[in-house]
């Protein structure tokens, strides 16, 4: 009889330990959320860059990498592709960059 009670206590304590261990793993649910927000910054070729300037201050934030000129936000942020800070840039310039990426028109002087 006493044996049975002890076994029962051991099972209970194992259960409690397991429960507290799995509880610890729940500490980072925020990561997923920021990832999905970031992904939204990657624009496809049909987007109107000028319309991305939601607060109409003439400035947007764009990734500095030529390959990521389609990463544009009206707010400061981080490029989801290369994790660099987005650079504040004139929306007209951002549109030019965006165009150059998608249509390959080297409208800016690329003499270096
Ligand atoms: Zn980037």
Portion of residues within helices: 40-55%
Largest sheet: 3 strands, antiparallel
Determine Rg (CA atoms, Å): 26 Å
Question: What is the tally of beta strands?
Answer: 3
The termini sit apart by 88 Å
Q: Would you tell me the overall average pLDDT?
A: 84
Question: What spatial form do the alpha-carbon principal axes imply?
Answer: rod-shaped
Structural class: mainly alpha
Bound molecules: zinc ion
SSE arrangement, N to C: HHEEEH
How many individual helices? 3
Oligomer: single chain
**Approximately what portion of the residues adopt beta-strand conformation?**
5-15%
In the sheet with the most strands, the strands line up as 2-1-3
Low-confidence stretches: none
Quick recap of the structure?
With 112 residues, the protein is mainly alpha-helical. It contains three helices and three strands. The longest helix has 23 residues, at 2-24.
């Amino acid at each position: 009889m006493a044996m049975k009670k002890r076994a029962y206590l051991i099972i209970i304590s194992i259960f409690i330990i397991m429960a507290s261990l799995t509880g610890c793993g729940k500490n980072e649910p925020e990561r997923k959320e920021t990832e999905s927000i970031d992904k939204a910054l990657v624009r496809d070729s049909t987007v109107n860059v000028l319309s991305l300037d939601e607060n109409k201050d003439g400035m947007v934030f764009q990734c500095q990498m030529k390959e990521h000129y389609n990463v544009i936000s009206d707010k400061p942020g981080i490029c989801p592709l290369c994790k660099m800070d987005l650079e504040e840039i004139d929306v007209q310039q951002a549109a030019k960059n965006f165009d150059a990426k998608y249509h390959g028109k080297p409208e800016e002087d690329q003499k270096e």
